[in-house]
Structure formats: structure tokens, C-alpha cells
Specification:
The chain has 462 residues and is an alpha/beta fold. It is built from 23 helices and 12 strands. It has 2 domains: 245 residues, 3-Layer(aba) Sandwich (Rossmann fold), CATH 3.40.50; 204 residues, N-(1-d-carboxylethyl)-l-norvaline Dehydrogenase, domain 2 (Orthogonal Bundle), CATH 1.10.1040.10. The chain has a 6-stranded parallel β-sheet, with helices on both faces. The chain has a 3-stranded mixed β-sheet with strand order 4-3-10, with helices on both faces. It has a 3-stranded mixed β-sheet with strand order 9-11-12. Bound molecules: D-mannonic acid. The site of D-mannonic acid has 9 residues, from helix 11 and helix 15.
Length: 462
């Protein structure tokens, strides 16, 4: 067993990203002598990571790698943990414990549902009962998922779920809802944050590299890049935490929005575009895509011409160039199909704001239209040499069926996809210039092949 005394953070969602990002930061803070940042790691469903942690004395290795250099670091921040679906009460007890000061979350875009809110609310209710209005009852709940206004969303989800809680729910039994709501408003702080580090899912190659370099069997070793950023809103339950976080390299700012928008719309959006193209071309990783000059050129122009004019982060040219270098990192085996997963939830956050901003300024974002046609071609489910692939997405079957149903009729195919309001909003499908452009690109991709169509598009749009 780990040392449960030092777990001031409860983290929900033990995926690769948490282990190489927030856990890495908390590990640094602990190494600086601040023991309060140990993590109680909660896996939402899958016990594998926890099982591995238990047999590895609560440690794992992270390879920080670029084309030129690589080194390994051992992370020891996670000290204890459990699986939410198996030991729910333990999670609730940890949320209520006076040792717990922070809750961090990486539960992916699709994790923000009432099940999550109910778990948090049960913890809040228990905390309210046990700690009342003491200062120690205050809690920072930091969403670290790639969602715009992630903190606000999480707070709204919790409050709305509480307001709709049925009379017989555990929450009501523990007290009056309006009292709990007032307590949450006073004691729970939900800062917005922007988190960034490219962390591919672990691979057999990475585990072998860990064995070669370290001489150990590490079942959950990871590879990542040296770059990382965490920008968090200055809305923390304990204001002194700002200084602690800053000492580990976290930026604490009054307004996260420019950082968050730049990240979602520049990094994640071009990631999704490259990933769809890569899957169609049979390229396995983002680095493979970046080694294809026309794809690199496309990502550069997508960011420069369609996206950057509508985002505010300073030094955007340098930001874009740094992103292109990060994408090209050959040491990161970041699979295109991993990035394509949950596209139906990612694209509304990554692409739609750029479409909307351009159209509001009477511009037609041509590169984004090309990317959209690639996404539709991607949904067909087979690359250009006919090799089929699958990807994980709650809507995957439905979207693929639509594409198959209309395959060959590009206008119908495009309309059937663009009319899905949960992805494209209400107006894109009625936007004739946009629909026509996407349709023409899909036609070109389908009849001439993606690289040929891309070449023509890049020439024609100069
Ligand atoms: C990627 C992100 O998988 C994806 O959808 O775009 O995980 C990306 O690598 C991170 O947001 C980088 O910070």
C-alpha cells in the first residue's frame, strides 16, 4: 500500500495524459519538499493502471524524447488509489477527507455526464456533513480536459445535476439541496485551465525501450515530449497554492481564455485534421504525416490563414512554428487513429469556432473545408489502399453508416454529415458556399485521391 496520508489530490481518470502531465507537476512539487501533492488516483472503470501501479510500488517511468535526445524520469506522485466503479465509497470518503485539497480530472470529452457529477456531488455532500464551513472544507476542482471553459462546464454540470436530483437520491438524504448548493458555491472552486503535452498512448515499443534503458518491467511506461504547459485560472480554494504551482512551472493567470482558445483551435484542430488525412493515406502517426511535405504545408496554412486571425494568444507565429516542430517529433509514436477517436465530440470544440469566426467576418475558411472533406472521407472507414480501420467514438457506427449510404453522391454525403447539429451547430448545413466547397473537395478526394486533391487545393488557394 502507498501512504494515504500524503494524498492531498484526488485525481479522476488515470490515463496517459494525467500520468505524464499533472502527476509530473505534482511529483516536482513533492520533490521540492511539499508532501501535500501526493495523488489518490481514481480509475473510472478500468483497473489495469492501478493493478500495475500496485505491483510497481506506485511508480512508473516516463521517457521524455525528441529527435536528438531522450531521458527517463520516474514519477512517484500517485501514492494510492482505487477504481470508481468497484470502490465508490472510497472515492466519496477521499473527497470528504480533510487531507484532500484538490480534485483534478482527466475523464475525456465524453466523461462530463451526470454519472461524474453524481460521484462528485456525493463527495461534496459528505464533505459538507463532515467539515461544514471550516476553511479546510474548501476544495479546488480542476478539470484538465481539452474542453473550452472546462472549469465552468464542470461547475454547471454539478449544479444542474444537483438541481435535478430526484427526491430519493443519496444527495437529498444527506441534506437539503439548496443548502448543499450554497455550500458548493462558497467552498468549491472550479478554475478553468489549459493543459498541454503530447502524450501518446503507451505502446509495446515504449515498454521495450523502458526495459532496455532501465532494466525493469514497467507495464505503464510512457513516452512524451519535453514541452508541457499548464495555465490555470487564479481561482483556487487556497490562494497560496498559486505560488506553489508557479514554483513548478504552472502559469496562474486571471483569464485562461486566450491560451485555451489558441490551444484547442491551433494545436488540437490541426492535430485532428492531420490525423484524418493520415488515416486516409495509411500513415500511422502524426510524425509520418509531418514528414509528408504537402501535409506539413497544409497544417501551416490551416493555422496561418484560417485559424490564427481569430485567436488572441501573443506571438502566434512562433506558437504555430513550435507546434509544427512538436508534431514532427519522430520520437512520439502518436497514432493518427488515436487522435481520430471521439472526433464527434472533439470537432465541435476544435473546428466549429473557427468556422463560425470566419463566417461572421464573411470569410470562407478553405483549408478547414478541405479538412472537413477529409474527415468525411475518413469516416468511410478504409484507407486509400482499401485497408479498413476502426476507431473509438460513440457516434462511429452512425457516422460511418451515413457515409456508406451516400457514398458516390458527394452533395448528399456532405449534407447528411453537416446537418448533425451536435457537431456542426444549426447553420453550417444551410451555408451554401460552405457546403458547396466541402462537397467539391470531397469529390476531388474521392475521385483523384487525397494527395492529388490536396496539391490542387494548395495551389488554387494561394
Ligand atoms: C490530441 C490531444 O488525442 C487528441 O485528440 O489532439 O490529446 C493532444 O495531444 C493534447 O491535447 C496535447 O496537449
Amino acid at each position: 500500500m502507498g501512504n494515504p496520508v500524503n494524498t492531498g489530490v484526488v485525481h479522476l481518470g488515470l490515463g496517459a495524459f494525467h500520468r505524464a502531465h499533472q502527476a509530473y507537476v505534482f511529483d516536482q512539487l513533492m520533490q521540492q519538499g511539499d508532501a501535500r501533492w501526493g495523488v489518490f488516483g481514481v480509475a473510472m472503470h478500468n483497473p489495469d493502471v492501478l493493478d500495475a501501479l500496485k505491483t510497481q510500488n506506485w511508480q512508473y517511468a516516463v521517457q521524455v524524447a525528441s529527435a536528438h535526445e531522450s531521458h527517463w524520469q520516474t514519477i512517484r506522485a500517485i501514492q494510492d488509489g482505487c477504481v470508481a466503479t468497484l470502490e465508490r465509497q472510497r472515492v466519496v470518503d477521499k473527497l470528504a477527507s480533510p487531507d484532500t485539497r484538490w480534485v483534478t480530472l482527466t475523464v475525456t470529452e465524453k466523461g462530463y455526464d451526470t454519472t461524474l457529477a453524481q460521484l462528485l456531488l456525493e463527495g461534496f455532500a459528505a464533505r459538507f456533513t463532515q467539515l461544514g464551513n471550516a476553511f479546510a472544507a474548501r476544495l479546488t476542482i480542476a478539470s484538465c480536459d481539452n474542453l473550452s471553459h472546462n472549469g465552468d462546464r464542470l461547475r454547471d454540470l454539478c449544479v444542474n445535476t444537483l438541481m435535478h436530483a430526484s427526491q430519493d437520491s443519496a444527495l437529498i438524504r444527506s441534506g437539503d439541496t439548496s443548502q448543499l448548493r450554497a455550500w458548493i458555491e462558497q467552498h468549491c472552486f472550479f478554475p478553468n485551465s489549459m493543459v498541454d503535452r503530447i502524450v501518446p498512448q503507451s505502446s509495446a515499443a515504449c515498454l521495450l525501450a523502458a526495459r532496455d534503458a532501465l532494466g525493469i518491467e514497467d507495464k505503464i511506461a510512457l513516452s512524451t515530449e519535453s514541452f508541457w504547459e499548464w495555465v490555470i485560472e487564479d481561482k483556487l480554494a487556497d490562494p497560496n497554492d498559486a505560488q506553489a504551482l508557479q514554483s513548478a512551472g504552472v502559469q496562474v493567470v486571471s483569464d485562461v481564455r486566450p491560451f485555451e482558445e489558441a490551444k484547442l483551435r491551433m494545436l488540437n484542430a490541426s492535430h485532428s485534421a492531420l490525423a484524418a488525412m493520415g488515416a486516409v493515406l495509411g500513415l500511422s502517426t502524426i510524425a509520418d504525416c509531418m514528414a509528408t511535405p504537402s501535409l506539413r504545408n497544409f497544417a501551416h496554412r490551416l493555422m496561418t490563414e484560417d485559424i490564427a486571425p481569430f485567436v488572441q494568444r501573443p506571438h502566434l507565429d512562433a506558437y504555430r512554428d513550435a507546434l509544427l516542430e512538436r508534431f514532427a517529433n519522430p520520437a512520439l509514436q502518436h497514432r493518427a487513429l488515436q487522435i481520430c477517436s471521439d472526433n464527434s465530440l472533439k470537432l465541435p470544440l476544435r473546428w466549429l469556432p473557427t468556422y463560425t469566426a470566419n463566417r461572421l467576418s464573411h470569410k470562407l475558411p478553405k483549408h478547414l473545408a478541405f479538412a472537413t472533406a477529409c474527415w468525411i472521407r475518413f469516416l468511410y472507414g478504409a484507407d486509400e489502399s482499401g485497408i479498413t480501420y476502426t476507431w473509438s467514438d460513440p457516434q462511429a457506427k452512425h457516422l460511418q453508416a451515413l457515409v456508406h449510404q451516400h457514398w458516390g453522391d458527394d452533395a448528399q454525403c456532405v449534407t447528411s454529415l453537416l446537418q448533425i447539429a451536435s457537431i456542426w451547430g444549426e447553420t453550417a448545413v444551410k451555408d451554401l458556399a460552405w457546403v458547396t466547397l466541402v462537397t467539391n473537395y470531397l469529390h476531388a478526394i474521392r475521385t483523384q485521391g487525397l494527395l492529388h486533391a490536396l496539391h490542387d487545393h494548395l495551389e488554387a488557394s494561394l
